[in-house]
Amino acid sequence: MFSRIRRLLIGRPLKNEEALYQRLPKWKALAIFSSDALSSVSYGPEQIAVVLALSGMVTYGYYLYSLIPIVILLAVVTISYTQVARANPGGGGSYSVARENLGEGPALVAGAALFTDYVLTVAVSITSGTAALTSAFPFLGDYKIALDLFVLFGVLTIINLRGVSESAKFFVLPTYLFVGSMLAIILVGVVQALTGTAPVVPEVSMQRQPMNMMIFFLILRAFANGCSSMTGLEAIANGVPMFKEPAYENAIHTTYYMSGLLATMMVGISFLVLHYHVMPNPDITMLSQIAEMTVGRGYFYYFFQLATMLILFLAANTAYNGLPPLMSIIAKDGYLPRYLGQRGERLNFSNGIILLSLATAVLLIAFNGNTEHLISLYAIGVFLSFTIAQSGMVVYWSRNKIQHWHWRAAINAFGAVITGIVVVIIAVTKFFYGAWIVLIFIPATIYCFKKINSHYTEMGKELALKPGEKFRYISSPIAKNYVILPISYPTRSVIEAMRYARKIGDEVIAVHIAADEQNAEYVKKVWHIQDPEIGIVTIKSPYRMVIQPLLDFIKKVLVDKNPEDYVTVLIPEVQTNKWWHRLLHNQTGLILRTLLIHKENVIVVTVPFRLKM
User: Fold this and answer.
1) Average pLDDT for residues 141-157, to the nearest whole number?
2) Could you tell me which residues come within 8 angstroms of residue 77 by beta carbon, excluding any fewer than 6 positions away?
3) Residue 477 pLDDT > 70, yes or no?
C-alpha cells in the first residue's frame, strides 16, 4: 500500500536523464527561474514603506532615496551575473565560481550563504503567498501556519519530487498571469493618476523631516529591507545547463528580460504606493490595498490576489531548482553528506529536496509564519554570494585574458564593491532585527562543512589500501568464530537463530539473563530438551537489568579470545506484518544492536523471524 501511495505522489522511476532534462526555451525558463525575483515586488516595496511609515517621524517622503539606489544596484548586479552565466555554463553559481577562482574558504562562505538564502526564499515566498490569500479572505487568517505547511509539503515538495520536467508544467502559466495582471494594475493606476481620475497625491506623502543621522540610518534600513526585491537574480546563472542551446546566450537574454520586468514593476508599484499614500497594515498587504484602490474589489481584484498568491507559492520553486543541485556539487566535493549528491528514482536530488523542505518547516514554525520577521534575516546571504561570485569573476577574467577582459573585470570589480557595501549596510542596519542570526549561522555552517570534509578525508585514509597491500583471504587455522546467542525464552525464533549459529560458528554460546532462580531453572530445563548439545550460560540479574549484564559477558569473551578470533552476536528478532504491531513489543534487540555495533571485533547479526499473522 505504501509503495502505491508513493508511486501516485512522485510517479514512476525514470531510466535515463533525457526523460528528466528537457532543455527549456527562453519563454519557459523565464517563468521557471524568474518567479522568485518577479514575485518579490509583492513584498519588496512594502518593506521600504514599513520602515519609513512606522518610524514615528515624517520620513515617508524619503521613499525614493531608498528605491532609486535599489534600481541602480539591480542594473549593476544584472550585468555582472550575465558575466557569470557566460563564464560558468556548467551552473553552480557563486559556489562554483569561488571554488575555481578563489579557493576553498570563499567557496564555503558562498555555499553557506546560498544555503541560507534558498531556505529563506522558500519561507518568505510561502508566508507572503499566504498573506496575499488572507488579505483577500480574512477569515483564513487563523490558519496561516497550517496553510504554509500544506503548501510546503503538500504542493512544492511533492511536485519537485516528481522531477524538473513535471514541475515545469505547473509554473509557467501562474508566472505569466501574475506579470500580466500586475502590469495591468500599474497601467490603470498610472493612467488614472495622469488623467486626474484617481485621488490627488496627499501632501504628507512628499513631506520629510530635515536630514540628520537618524533619518540617514532609517533610509539605509529601508534600503536594506527593499533589497529583498533582488533575491532570485542568481537563479538563471545557476541553471544555465537547463537552457536550450546556445545555453549561456539564452540564459543571458533571459536575465535581461527578467531584470527589465522586475525594474518596471518595482518602479510602477512604488509610484502607486506614493500616489495613494498607502500605509502598512498588518492584516492587509500594501499590494492588495493598491489593487483595491485601482480596480475596486471586484472579480479582477480577486483574480489578481490569487495570481499573486500562486506566484509567491511557486516562487519558492526557484530554491528547489537551485539548492539540491548545489548541495550535490558541494557533496561531491566532500563538504556535505554524500547521499545529497545521489539522484533518486526520478533522477532528481530527492534527498536535497526533502532536506530543504524540513529546514523551511523549522523556520516557518520558529517565526510563526511572520513575513516581516523572516525578511529581517533575508538579503544578507544573497548579497554575500553576489560579492563572492563577482570577486571570483575578476580573478577569472584576469587569469584567462580573453577579448575585452579589462572591461569585463572592471564591471565585476565594480559590482563586487557595490554589493560588498550593501552586505555591510544590511548587517549593520538589520543586526538587531535578525541579521545576527544569519551572521552566526553562516560560520556555523562553514564549520560543519569542514568537519564533514575532515571525516571523509580521515575515513578515506583508513580505508585505502597501502602500497603493495593485498587481500588476505586465509586466516590463521587456529582462529575461531564465537557465536553468542542471547535468549529470553526458547521460542521458534530462537531455534531459527540457533540453526544459523551452527552454520557459521565454531563455538555457540547461548546466554540467558535471569531475573529470578525459578525462571532460570525453567528456561534451562526447556533449553536442554530442545538442544542438549549446546549448553546455556545463565547470568543472574536480581535488579532485572538485561542489557548491561549481557554487555559485561561479551566483554569477558572479548578479553579471553585470541587476536585472530571473531565474536558474532546473533539477535533473534520477530518481524511483524503491520507497523503498529511493533509498538506492542519491546525494543531490546534494537538497543542491543545499537550498543554493540560500535564495539571493535564484534559482529552483530539480526536473524529475522517473520510472523504470518
Assistant:
1) 87
2) 230, 233, 386, 415, 419
3) no
Grid cell locating 6: 508513493
Sole residue written with cell 537552457: 243
Over the stretch 118-136, which tens digit does the pLDDT of each residue have?
Answer: 888 888 888 888 888 888 8
The top-scoring range by mean pLDDT among 339-343, 353-357, 425-429 is 353-357
How long, in residues, is the chain? 613
Q: Is 379 left (phi over 0), alpha (psi -120 to 50) or beta?
A: left
CB-count exposure of residue 552 (10 Å: 0-12, 13-18, 19+): exposed
- The answer to whether residues 80 and 420 touch, using CB atoms and an 8 Å cutoff, is no
Provide CB contacts within 8 A for 587, sequence distance 6+: none
Partners of 566 in the beta sheet?
Answer: 481
Q: In 333-479, which residue ranges form alpha helices assigned H by DSSP?
A: 350-366, 371-375, 380-400, 405-429, 435-463
Which residues make beta-bridge pairs with 74?
none
- Who contacts 320 (Cβ-Cβ below 8 Å, separation ≥6)? 122, 156, 160, 167, 353, 356
Question: pLDDT value at position 186?
Answer: 93
CB-side neighbour CA atoms (13 Å) of 377: 25
Residue 264's SS3 state is helix
Residue type, 494: V
Reduced to 3 states (helix: H, G, I; strand: E, B; else coil), residue 98 is helix
Sign of the CA dihedral 281, 283, 286, 289? negative
pLDDT at 2: 41
For residues 121 and 315, is the Cβ–Cβ distance under 8 A?
A: yes
Cβ proximity of 374 and 435 under 8 Å = no
d(CA 64, CA 214) in angstroms, rounded, equals 17
Kindly provide the b/e burial profile for residues 108-136, where b requires at least 16 CB atoms within 10 angstroms of the residue's own CB: bbbbbbbbbbbbbbbbbbbbbbbbbbbbb
**Spatial separation of the C-alpha atoms in residues 542 and 29, rounded to whole Å:** 71
At residue 598, φ and ψ (nearest 5 deg) are -95, -5
Question: C-alpha 606: how far from its chain's center?
Answer: 35
Q: For the chain, give me the number of helices (H) and strands (E)?
A: 24, 5
DSSP-derived 3-state class of residue 276: coil
State the cell numbers at 397.
Answer: 577574467
Q: Is the pTM of this model over 0.70?
A: yes
Grid cell at residue 191: 493612467
CA distance 606 to 595: 14
